[in-house]
């Protein structure tokens, strides 16, 4: 049975570098990169810095869909999923594209019209996807390290949708924290084991 480790912290806290340090640089590691495309040059630079830091023998799987299948099928020592926040966000927008098409202007308009019932169904879909990932990890012999952003320590978002989605991400983190065998909180580059 694979062990699950969760590493959380704020932006630029050092959580990704710490998560990487938990794994053997000589082992066969599958890095599951969930931010699959750069929307602007600054994001492209962030992705590049992450890629340069990884050991050359680690493989990379760029996806935020069917991650449970990746975990079940890959023959590796461990998976490092970076990050849960991007996976959840990308998965959310995938659900929106299924409903409303590819035009993000329309998606943005439709998001504002979502009812509480529709929001609850979307959150359930996201949490269900995470349950598939966690079940795959538990059923495998491969360890899983998940990096996530701690979303509850910053400013309260300005609009109702952003506040709701922040809550969804917080619920994802709670689910991950509950299931994880070990949890680390990284602040100012300093990891603290909290579970």
TrEMBL record:
Residues that span the membrane, as ranges: none
Catalytic activity: adenosylcob(III)inamide + ATP = adenosylcob(III)inamide phosphate + ADP + H(+); adenosylcob(III)inamide phosphate + GTP + H(+) = adenosylcob(III)inamide-GDP + diphosphate; adenosylcob(III)inamide + GTP = adenosylcob(III)inamide phosphate + GDP + H(+)
UniProt keyword annotations, A-Z: ATP-binding, Cobalamin biosynthesis, GTP-binding, Kinase, Nucleotide-binding, Transferase
Positions with a binding annotation for GTP: 9-16, 62, 82
Molecular function per GO: adenosylcobinamide kinase activity; ATP binding; cobinamide phosphate guanylyltransferase activity; GTP binding
Known pathway: Cofactor biosynthesis; adenosylcobalamin biosynthesis; adenosylcobalamin from cob(II)yrinate a,c-diamide: step 6/7; Cofactor biosynthesis; adenosylcobalamin biosynthesis; adenosylcobalamin from cob(II)yrinate a,c-diamide: step 5/7
Major enzyme class: transferase
Active-site residues annotated for this sequence: 50 (gmp-histidine intermediate)
UniProt-listed Enzyme Commission number(s): 2.7.1.156, 2.7.7.62
Job of this protein: Catalyzes ATP-dependent phosphorylation of adenosylcobinamide and addition of GMP to adenosylcobinamide phosphate.
Family according to the record: Belongs to the CobU/CobP family.
Annotated protein name in UniProt: Adenosylcobinamide kinase
Protein's organism: Enterococcus avium ATCC 14025
